[in-house]
Amino acid sequence: MTNSSGSRYAYRMYNVKPSAIRELMKVTRQPDVISFAGGWPAPELFPAKEMEKVCQKVLKEDGAYALQYGASEGYQPLREFIAGRMSDKGIDITADNIFITSGSQQGLEYSAKLLVNEGDVVICESPTYVGAIGAFNPYLPKYVEVPMDEKGMIMEELEKALIENPKAKFIYTIPDFQNPTGVTMSGERRKKLVELAGKYGILVIEDSPYGDVRFEGEKLPPIKYYDKEGIVVYLGTFSKTFCPGLRVGWVAAEPDIIRKYVLIKQGADLQVNSLAQREVVTFAKMYDFDGHVNKIIDSYKSRRDAMLDAMEKEFPTNIKFTHPKGGLFTWVELPKHIKAMDVFEKAIEAKVAFVPGDSFFPNGGDKNHFRLNYATMNEEKIIEGITRLGKVLKTL
Amino acid sequence: MTNSSGSRYAYRMYNVKPSAIRELMKVTRQPDVISFAGGWPAPELFPAKEMEKVCQKVLKEDGAYALQYGASEGYQPLREFIAGRMSDKGIDITADNIFITSGSQQGLEYSAKLLVNEGDVVICESPTYVGAIGAFNPYLPKYVEVPMDEKGMIMEELEKALIENPKAKFIYTIPDFQNPTGVTMSGERRKKLVELAGKYGILVIEDSPYGDVRFEGEKLPPIKYYDKEGIVVYLGTFSKTFCPGLRVGWVAAEPDIIRKYVLIKQGADLQVNSLAQREVVTFAKMYDFDGHVNKIIDSYKSRRDAMLDAMEKEFPTNIKFTHPKGGLFTWVELPKHIKAMDVFEKAIEAKVAFVPGDSFFPNGGDKNHFRLNYATMNEEKIIEGITRLGKVLKTL
């Protein structure tokens, strides 16, 4: 049935397509498939036992509030906890700069809702997070992709894009262990990016879900650290350092921008789960939050090592891949004559899965990359999966 | 700072205003104010003690999944539980018809995102839920308001609106104990509404947050019960029958429509809190869900009685108000010469709060109504608050 206008759905829905990754998940959830596809953290690292005690404490001491409606900006002690952690990184910030979201995916979607008119330009890395493309797409932006090298977005290319697109709405970047490439933006470029954003009068959306999951090397300050004009909007989340199922993330920005996000939330879904917000703070009070993150880091580091070692051994030498210093992903580059989709089809037959690279390019057209997640599977499965994948690659 | 286009924010933000109710909340949260303003359920009815056991069970038996990412459509046993409860109302429905949302507010927002192009007509009751207006506004609809009487939306007026607006996108209705009026749509009109929607080829969004909170009188089937063509989208929630802080609601619709909602969720916030979804199902397994709802009904019924009795005694006789058979609200009509905002200002001085009626009319212009919530305060406070309010009204 359609009404007399001929189309039941809003035309933005033409730009809302199934998430490639989420659809793939359905295939890869068979128990005998070794999946390097999803961005799911390792479940054995969730503090389920501790969370029993956390929930009990929250409900016993604060049950009536934990189950009730709460403020759209978020639970005040959680805002303070996050502001404290960000201050520790040298950022000048208070609870008033923090807005709690249902994961940083919601931060992405609200950012587009706040900023993007149909046809507005969004400048992003090439490639970029497929979920950001999915969050932005309903607001019908145009994407201008900026090439990257091993130090992240290339600043000369960014400036060219800014000059060519004077009305661009924001620069979207994932500076730490980028999804999908695993590449980290250098400190120098972070500073330069803020300078360029200031010069060309454009907001920066800094998406840092993996920033705290660094295995080695010098800790770099967030892009927000260099921001003196209030032009960087930082998106954070507890999904990779704690528990994604709780859906707790945040936006850190100037209070006048935060107020706009709050208005969006009042209309969209009122607030984040009151109990979940208290669970995060109470876990941090009862246990050692950084100690928990360090456990995740240790585990993912071993898994990264296992995967990269296995790739060195099992992959043909004409296959290149990145060496991430943190996060969840490595990015594989195939020789021009091998197509990622052909590898994918044969890999699925061999019961190993990953995400072909094309969907990470908002304007499409890539055929020769794929993304591997080393965080979800244990070392044994990683070695077995990479061995299977190596065999597939050798046949092509 | 604005970029060179002159405006930092998307133009939809001109239509995103502070929620009157949420802003009022700030005043009314002072402990000595008796507030009949918010739509907040009575917190002493939350099963906090039981929830301790529920959380423990979920985390012990299913911790790795309860803290992990999950399916965008929702946790399968919760979808089945909801489908079962709706089937008990005579609706032909399975889990495939159910999509889990972060409260029914999110169902409203997604419905607009799915259906509304700028300038599209939304047909609604006059007055209607202020939060629905807030959810729809960013998508820049036009509102056509249909007058109500004591049996709900007047069908002749609805048909007139449908004829005058052949491209209208959907009819939005709250048939049960409507917010703000407390009015319930008659069974005959529910059937007629579905007939008219079918005849004019338009979807119906049936919003029923209070449907299960009936104090007395015959239970009426949801509008969805009469729907044989799959044109009714039903929005439900556990916020009024269980715990709003968990943010768990649902959409019930045809599977092809459900798939579109799922696509929106994949881009917007991935999924609802995995732990919260399990908490609802596990509570229902461990305890008597309907028994819990009956406790809420008993409590709210006493409070409604206390409020209506006090209003009969304390209000001047030229003040009219509705006699709701369920839900949380009564709707007060003032004589033309008394303005709700004047009453509000004097009431705040007398430390009693409510929501002036104007914001419930999407096209504005009302001066002579206000909404009272009888569910949050206990009988003693209700009587004291209504007495204060009666004094204010007598001075005007």
Automatic annotation (TrEMBL), chains A, B:
Superkingdom assignment: Bacteria
Keyword Zinc: no
A GO molecular function held by the record: pyridoxal phosphate binding
Listed GO biological process terms: alpha-amino acid metabolic process
Obligatory cofactor(s): pyridoxal 5'-phosphate
Pfam families found in the cross-reference section: Aminotran_1_2
Entry keyword set: Aminotransferase, Pyridoxal phosphate, Transferase
Domain Aminotransferase class I/classII large: 51-389
The keyword Transmembrane helix belongs to this UniProt entry's keyword annotation: no
Xref: InterPro entries: Aminotransferase_I/II_large, Class-I_PLP-dep_aminotransf, PyrdxlP-dep_Trfase, PyrdxlP-dep_Trfase_major, PyrdxlP-dep_Trfase_small
Subunit structure: Homodimer.
Family under the similarity heading: Belongs to the class-I pyridoxal-phosphate-dependent aminotransferase family.
Protein's name in the database: 2-aminoadipate transaminase
Native organism: Maledivibacter halophilus
